[in-house]
Amino acid sequence: MKDGFIKVAACTPEIQVADVDFNVDKIISQLEKCREEGVKVAVFPELCITGYTCQDLFFQNALLDKAMEGVVKIAETTADSDMLVAVGVPVRANGKLYNCAAVIQDGEVRAFVPKTHLPNYNEFYEARHFAPYRGECAAIDLREYGQLEFIPPMEQTVFVCDEIPELVVGFELCEDLWVADPVSNYLAKAGATLICNLSASDEVIGKDSYRRQLVSNQSARLVAGYIYCSAGDGESTQDMVFSGHNIIAENGSILAESRLFENGITISEIDFKKLAFERRKISTYPASAEWDYSSKDSGFLDKDNISRERFSLEMGETALTRKFAKTPFIPSNQAERNERCHLILQMQSHGLMKRIAHTHSKTVVIGISGGLDSTLALLVCVMAMDLLKRPHTDIVAVTMPCFGTTKRTRSNAEILCDALEVTFREVDISKAVLQHFEDIGHDYNDHSVVFENGQARERTKMLMNIANQVSGMVVGTGDLSELALGWATYNGDHMSMYGVNASIPKTLVRHIVQYYGDTCTSDTLRDVLYDILDTPVSPELLPTDESGTEMTQKTEDLVGPYELHDFFLYYGIRWGFEPSKVKRLAKYAFEGDYPDEVIDKWLKTFYRRFFSQQFKRSCLPDGAKIGSVTLSPRGDWRMPSDAVAKLWLEDIDK
Fold first, then answer.
1. Which of 38, 109, 605, 641 could pair with 614 in a Cys bridge, judged by C-beta atoms 3.0 to 4.6 Å apart?
2. Residue 115 designated active-site
3. What are the CA-CA distances from residue 154 to residues 61, 318, 417, 505 (Å)?
4. pLDDT at residue 492, as a whole number
5. Catalytic: which of 11, 26, 40, 46?
6. Is 174 known to be catalytic?
7. CA distance 577 to 588
8. Which pLDDT belongs to residue 215?
9. Is position 482 annotated as part of the catalytic site?
10. Which residue among the candidates 174, 229, 381, 402 is catalytic per the annotation?
């Protein structure tokens, strides 16, 4: 359970209809496997002890009595386990029969949670046998079946973990999810962060896709973990076929999913600290104390009918099996990645289009270096002008070579501008910078920060003055990763009139430029974009070699790999993970790519720079939010510029 991860399982055993002994043995066998895997919450299908398709056999006391014996037998096998288990069983109470989830832990049946919504349409006929739950409660006496210590209630219940307060488990059964107002809505409002659905969903064409979307959307809407466990092989095929479709989701993401028509165990780990963080962050998410609803809004599901039970788990580290992408900002699927890149370009260009139209700018001015960021910004400018139905010549692209400019980047800048048919200007700033050094008494051979920033500020001054000259606005090129690290010269490349890349991390910039190159129709444009992609990232502020072809300054040698920093940014800032947790996930995701000490080094660099460079983010130019992570002081991120990083740096070494 370290770092909030809990291993959970959706289990679909082989069953035989009405053969309780057979079914119980198969359930116990899967529970043993779950225990070996370190599972802490295991969910089985609806009515799995008897079989969902027993039909009028549910009226037979022999079957119902045997089912209760089976529940107690399953409970007895968990006597030396802290795993919270839910199995489906028919339960007699209040002179009616209820379709229930038996919740089991530590050798006891802790509660029976009844199904609220009974389908009685198409192939379903549950109302013939079962009563819908309407808030009534009952005590289920299991003494005659072997459980002597505890008489479990039948009522809607959430289970709260003593050791991990973020883990609160609620239960619904099949149709309870498919209705217009799912039971899980109220469970989440009562504090549940994990919804367990015991289901017997038959398979028809297209239903698996709908089911997957339903589970994903509900977990996202509730900001919850969701275990959906469905009946499979062994149910009667008299009129239906069951596929055993099991799904484990977390806040809209599918973590694990079974293949259709394969009984078995589906396992993953849900991060409950992550869910708790997101709920705290969302101001409209109700506090769990707010679950006293009027009968008009919630019917019988109010505070008097959702009881709270406590349960305990033995603490320990959860072995991770779920995947953590090395590049969390980039979809792994090629088609989805292309769609994402297309959408981002549309968002960037429409944002810029609005700003150009609002300011009545006759031109836009952009510094073009032959690097990735300025290339993406130039492509966005071109798309914005296309939207405005204005010529590309209204874009003034300025290259400003100086001491560190290589022949390759200088050439690529010009080829790119020619291919896009924008207005191209070259202003060599060497003399101006040398004059500035003379004015302030700085030795040219002193390649300190003065040497570098003097060039960056000269370039920005040049762009601003050219913009005045051509009645234009300066478009900024800096990206999100640079903002996180503060890798920008204050009032140099840090400044512009509008920053189109401010919400795009460096790892994603590369893919967007790649997408543009892959889809453009000009061979010349494609070739230069590919060469820019192959060029190392560099500010080119230190002198080149004598030939002018070799860079002497590479950004990632100085601040660390951007794929690591974007990983740190996503998990450490977007999700608020502790640095020690970020480190754990980075070592897990990048195993074999970076030694542990390298990850530690750059993680410390990330936090040191992130805190010390906030003053640059506090006065950012405008720029549209594109993704879920942005550092705008007017948007998602407000932080004092003099906050201290000590606590975060200490946590890395825990």
1. 641
2. yes
3. 19, 32, 72, 51
4. 95
5. 46
6. yes
7. 15
8. 98
9. no
10. 174
